[in-house]
Amino acid sequence: xxxxxxxxTIALRAAKEFENGMVINLGYGMPALCANFIPEGRTVFxxxxxGILGYGSLGVDEEKDYELINASDQPVTPLPGMCFFxxxxxxxxxxxxxxxxxxxxxxxxxxxxxxxxxxxxxRPATGMGGAMDLASGSKKLMVMMLxxxxxxxxxxxxxxxxxxxxxNCVSKIFTxxxxxxxxKEGLVLRxxxxxxxxxxxxxxxxxxxxxDKDLKEIEx
Amino acid sequence: MPVNKIYETCDQAVxxxxxxxxxxxxxxxxxGGLPINLIVALAKQGAKNLTVIANQGGVGFELSKRIKPDGxxxxxxxxxxxxxxxxxxxxxxxxxxxxxxxxxxxxxxGKIEMEVVPQGTLAERIxxxxxxxxxxxxxxxxxxxxxxxxxKRVINGREYLLELPLHADFALIKAHxxxxxxxxxxxxxxxxxxxTTAMAARTTIVEVDKLVPPGEIDPEAVVTxxxxxxxxxxxxx
Lengths: 220, 237
Hints:
The structure holds 2 protein chains of 2 kinds.
Chain A: H1 7-15, E1 23-26, E2 45-48, E3 52-55, E4 83-84, H2 87-95, E5 101-105, E6 108-110, E7 115-116, H3 131-137, E8 141-144, E9 156-157, E10 172-174, E11 178-183, E12 186-192, H4 198-203, E13 210-217
Parallel strand pairs in A: 1-2, 1-5, 5-8, 6-9, 8-10, 12-13
Antiparallel strand pairs in A: 2-3, 3-4, 6-7, 10-11, 11-12
Chain B: E1 6-7, H1 10-13, E2 22-25, H2 36-45, E3 50-53, H3 60-64, H4 76-80, E4 84-89, H5 102-108, E5 113-116, H6 119-130, E6 136-138, E7 152-155, E8 158-163, E9 168-179, E10 184-185, H7 194-198, E11 201-212, E12 231-234
Parallel strand pairs in B: 1-12, 2-3, 2-9, 3-4, 4-5, 9-11, 11-12
Antiparallel strand pairs in B: 6-8, 7-8, 9-10
């Protein structure tokens, strides 16, 4: 039976990309969950726009310290060696290329890796927060998103129709049915959710996918 | 620089804010780091036609219960009161919340102006204003609607946008501890926009959890040097 992965499972898969020693920024919403899935034996350092480096997993809401949160307003657990800094210093780190990996949520990603993740129809007053700075400054940007809209339409599109965050910035996409790399040749389908085929994924994807000859089931 | 910076109440500390002032407000947006008591005092004081510069536009008391169960006031109260003419910030309204914040409602009705600025650009524009710079070039926003109307320049083969400094008449900020001279330390992620904001206004007003005599804060640990601070109110939380 074709099942779509839940958010926790997508986060588990995305976190497999964490490499030892990386400084990582996790975006608002779904990507923040990745903090709970660091692969065993690896040490990484989470940075958040609101001025914190080196926090641990997400904390418990009932015990929330409102002065120890990530940029998604979630409580985080303190770790030895954690440090704080102001917003201007935080964005020096972000713009200046000092963050190894950024994982953001998205409304749309284009086949060229353009990202649209802050504005949508009917919401005139939302803003991009730190997403544009993260997208322009990180060494590597990956996206975690649901593959389709609530109505079943594609979010991976030829051209973004929602306001852009940055152009040509996304290198990898994790969805509830697939893992896709953005390459110069186009979008390469690397992994599919259990029982899904490349044709199934293509049916929900606007641009034509290049199917990896080693296409496999999503590794968890 | 005033010699006595201590005010008994937030009401007294914001009493002379005039209609039409530009107000910068520190914090990130939610409860931690936000100068809530100064914001509430400004709401009572009633100054109108304000330009407010802050990271987030506030969710208002009702939606704040989704962040902190007993709720709290934020910039939303100033917007709701009709005191704000223009808002400049990176997240006027949160996409993860219903579209019912005071700012989103008034903006939809065409009753408030808005300038949306990427968060890093906002922090740097404030720092540029604080440090006497005429602006800076940033890659953030290139190829998006943020570049509209801005000078674009190629430096070392990469495109950058010219961004201009921000200044304010008053800054309202929150710190953890002040000495009576105005040296400040912060706590945890409540630091965020507060130290930068503290430096960019003619008059900076800080609410602190704790006021101590000079010498009690380790000089090596001071985050905001006292010359930036004009007024201090102790409001234990």
